[in-house]
Design brief:
The structure is a single chain. The protein is mainly alpha-helical. The chain has one domain. It is built from four helices and no strands.
Length: about 80
């Protein structure tokens, strides 16, 4: 999967996950469509990518070349999310 495809997939998954919390301010009720707004989904996707990148053993569990590929791939996913 290309970084762009992965970025779209992550955003799409977060858009589909929206848990309504009745303690949220009323202004959220006005535009509630049952899906997460795209900007919030993008922020969630960026947080998820940061978690992958900051995983203590994520890149180090691969041989050096693969570890760098792993880091580069997820950095590219992050850039694609920011561009969407």
């Amino acid at each position: 999967m290309t970084p762009k495809e992965k970025a779209k997939e992550l955003i799409s998954k977060f858009c589909q996950v929206y848990v309504w919390d009745s303690s949220m301010p009323n202004e959220f009720n006005e535009d509630f469509s049952g899906t997460m707004p795209i900007q919030i989904a993008k922020e969630c996707a960026l947080i998820a990518v940061e978690e992958v990148l900051n995983g203590e053993q994520a890149a180090y569990s691969f041989p050096v070349e693969m570890g760098q590929f792993f880091i580069d791939y997820w950095n590219d996913v992050k850039k694609e999310i920011e561009l969407l």
